[in-house]
Amino acid sequence: MATRVDVKQVQALLAEGAQVLEVLPAEEYEEEHLPGAINIPLKELDAGTASVLDRKRPVIVYCWDSVCDLSPRAACRLETLGFEQVYDYVAGKYDWLAYGLPSEGEDANKPTVAGLASIEVVTCGLQDPAASLRERVEASPFPFALVVSRTDVVLGRIPRSALSGSGDATAEAVMEAGPSTFRPNVALDSLVERLRKRDFKYAIVTRADGTLIGVAKRADAEQRLDS
């Protein structure tokens, strides 16, 4: 049975010279794919088409996401064809893109929210005194602070209004838990549409593991689309 791997393991395997195989239809591959990936749609995977792969090197197989079953089926098929080092990237292409990692294809250079995300947002820990954030937020381009874990996972948001009269309260006590976030691969037109629908002026951008990339302004996205 193929070994299931996550994004960090995929990166390590690639650094060691592994091959990457996308088994989605050709049109989806052409839109965007992992760097250097070979495309053999599952419907076409057999001994003949698999001959482009080096049997002596590991093969990482992926499809769209963990709900899509094309990659586990393709991994199994490769094993029946005699491949011994087969890895199934279960989370797939969506996971890779959601980490903001490099890609290739027609859509690879389209503007996304990642290009507008600023790291100038104020961040703090759960036990930091809320009062200590006031001056920092006032000097920041964003009217709020983000509460993050020691590993930079976004836990909460503290609007500037919550810092007035916060006294000895901790950041955890005054934060809004679980703020909405966006992945770095979200296209700008889609981002603007979603922000307008919710009447949001800012987008908190995080990777697939919840770690902070930065914050983007809706106004900047609108300006980029109009230019």
Protein described:
- The protein is of the alpha/beta class and 227 residues long.
- It has 2 domains: 3-98, Rhodanese-like domain (Oxidized Rhodanese, domain 1), CATH 3.40.250; 113-226, CBS-domain (Roll).
- Helix content is 27%, strand content 20%.
- It contains 8 helices and 12 strands.
- The chain has helices at 7-15, 26-31, 70-80, 92-98, 134-138, 171-174, 188-198, 218-226; strands at residues 3-5, 19-22, 38-39, 59-62, 86-89, 122-124, 144-148, 154-159, 176-177, 181-182, 202-206, 212-217.
- The strands form 3 sheets. A 5-stranded parallel β-sheet has the order 1-5-4-2-3, sandwiched between helices. The chain has a 4-stranded mixed β-sheet with strand order 6-7-8-9. It has a 3-stranded mixed β-sheet with strand order 10-11-12.
- β6 (122-124), α5 and β7 form a beta-alpha-beta unit.
- α7 (188-198) packs across α8 (218-226).
- The longest helix is centred in the N-terminal third of the chain and has 11 residues, at 70-80.
- It is elongated and about 70 Å long.
- The N and C termini lie far apart (51 Å).
- The mean pLDDT is 95.
